[in-house]
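Practice problem. Given the sequence and the SMILES for zinc ion, write out the predicted structure.
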Amino acid sequence: MSATDRPVVFRNGLVLTMDDAHTVLPGADVLVIGGRIAQVGVGLTAPDDALEIDATDGILMPGMVDTHRHLWQTAMRGYGADWTLTQYFVWYYLESGRLFRPEDVYAGNLLGAIEAIDAGVTTTVDWSHGLQTPEHADAAVDALEAVDGRFVLAYGNIQQGPWEWATSPEFRDFHRRRVDGGKLAGFQLAFDVTGDPAFPERAAFEVARELGVAVTTHAGVWGATNDDGIRLMHENGFMNPSTVYVHAATLTQDSYNRIAATGGSVSVSTESEQSAGQGYPPTWQLRHHDIPVSLSMDTSVWWSGDLFSAMRSTLGADRSREHLEAHAKQETITHCHLRAEQVVEWATRGGARALGMDATIGALTPGRQADVVLIKNDASPAMFPILNPHGHVVFQAQRADVHTVLVGGRVVKRDGRLVGVDLAAARAAVASTIDHLRETMGEEAWQRGMNPDVPETAILENPYQYTEWDAGSAQWKH
Ligand SMILES: [Zn+2]
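Answer key:
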């Protein structure tokens, strides 16, 4: 990404620096020069040619980081709202995922990438497991390169074993062509470890090691991956600080100990874990093992791609679990352990650390890349008063309150409007993907996929009769 040359200065905002001390500066300015944060403080002097943005009554925070999102699935936004994980697997892995052509991966990635920056998510890991051919992979990268955000491509292919695609000459050729010297902010290998005692995934881990890239893996997913996968990775020496464990929800203490001891981090997708059934969102466990956390949205086939939802649901799920565990012991939680401030840290620094990018993004401190989000909406009654700034970001703000976004000093959204983005073209591309899927599947299968059967709800026996109060006789009627 090339930064614009024009300096930018935000004036008079409430600045959440997310530096090591989580310094909050009221009425402060953020000065951006040459694509980097030059200074943060009150009453800064800016160059004459600086673009001045009024941040009064707004919150300035670092761009958010999403460490796990299947951008290609954005083409089917909302289709799976009533799915379980089983239905998701059947649709994408077994029945219809193969229908995606390279142009369909492009369409989903393009809309998803635009959605990310619109919501202030300036860095996104595209957990791209629909790369059936090198043409699909090229299409994925073409879309990411067309949008001015930071995108890490996590290369995957659910139609083959990782030991097949990761060792193929086509994959090596792709890596040489598109990753070295390309525009991507990073590159990972994305695959899951099934727990097969023969550990066929070894070959893919060896490729990652040889290329010097991180592995990201869906771990601790009920019914899919479990402690055996973690144990095999650990026993074979493939767990390291760059490893990202997605979900890590259904695991024993032994697995958490192995993750903690090898320095990896967990990407928590709370909304996903709550709806799809990978396991209870694990932050309440991870806190006890001191395992680093980042946040993610997983897929827009169910949920929207903004981290406000992720922060809010993560804080709620953690507290919900803490209350539930206490009530089971007839105890009362009087003080919450998890704070809003911590969740904002996970959405910014936590993501930066997980991706090995903590020196360059994740905080508003001099020298870092200027990935800046201004949350400000003078028309919204929910943006006043701002008393508890971290709490405001987590529980009050929404994506529509994202006023201005900078990526590397470049203005990609201003006054609530995307800048330099052809949203109409992205919509048209997605529309033709939907036409293709509907026509190929047939209308009945398309509708059936979106509307899974509802299991019958058992109505429990009630010892009380349904009754009605009779005011005349002042008695219950039977
Ligand atoms: Zn996922």
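Check your answer against the key. The pocket of zinc ion is lined by residues 68, 70, 127, 218, 246, 298 (CB under 6 Å).
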